[in-house]
Amino acid sequence: MGMAASQARYLGLTARKTNVEYEGQQINQARTALANQSANTFNELLALEVPTAPSTQDYTTVKYSYKDGAITEEIEEMSQLIDDPDGYNYIITHYHYADVYTGVQNKLQNPQVIMGTTGVKNSIPRDSIEENGVGDYTIDGNPVTKFDETDEEQKDAYRKISENYPEFAKLKDDLYTYTAEDGSIHFTTGASLKGDKDADDYYVKSDIPKSIGTAPVRKYDPSDSTQKAAYEQICKDWPASDFANADPEDIYVWEYQGQTRFACLSDLEKTAISGPDQTTPSENQDKLTYYTAQDINTKISQQQKAIVDINEEGRIQSIRYEDSSITYAVNTETETDQNAYEDAMNQYNYDMQVYEKQIADINAKTEKIQEQDRTLELRLRQLDTEQDALQTEMEAVKKVIEKNIESTFKTFE
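Below the sequence we write its predicted structure tokens.
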């Protein structure tokens, strides 16, 4: 082999060896990165919390109760007294459930409040009526005239009032009218004008609640004992409401599925005008605030000092309260909240599935890292074998070069 060719070969082998060493360094760095990833997945595994199955004991409580006449009282809480001067050793909170007549506030969706006109009967104070001595009268200074059937306004008002007061229609021959300051037409009778008591006064009132949905609305009747009891209870339980502060004359009722519902005029008016399209005012109205009174099953609690006798198992045997001479025998039973336990078990099963999925994901990551590392390790071994071969060949070439140098440049043997 010529010296030049040997030198070129040696340089090529040196470059190849350098490249192999560089590739080996890159592989070692990649394996270091994989080792860090493997450590991170291991830390993830260590951070996982194994779900714990719930125990029925965690959802089981000891329940104490006793009979007080027909009522079953249950003990809700008890705290020990130390050195009570009257000898009581516990403060007991006990309760029972009973039906309590209660005023209830509700909101009615899509109420469809319809307002209209209605005939109203009132009275005219005697001192508002003046007679000029020749049979002509004024009421609050407004002239009184005989009912004129040819006047369309008077005729229309007469018809509407007659719908609400049938007896009014029979008074046609004795009817007189006057126009009030607000422009409304009022009717009275000649007999009332000539009498010495307050005169009858009939007129048409507008913006009166007529119906809610298909249910007709009527005025609250305080002479109805059932309505009155309900009205008073609502006012008691909702003292700050518009309903409680409204005039009883402005309270209206209607029936729905056997239940009497109450609403005040201001709430009915607000709902009636809330429809965005006033061509169909009963559509898309705001919710209507209304009230009912009904028996509500209510928890009634009481807290008292008591002398409590506790047995060897640490359970209550008997109780005598501070305001009674009766000693109550206490019944003890354990109660498991099965629904809560089943909810906890469902949560445990879900958490277990999540945990197993996380374990599977970590194992899959680890397996992938290991597979990548095995591939890199195999390539590193190949490079190591290649480097050994290159080193052997380089030594052989080096010897050839040395012989070439010796044979070419040696002067004396």
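The longest helix spans residues 338-409.
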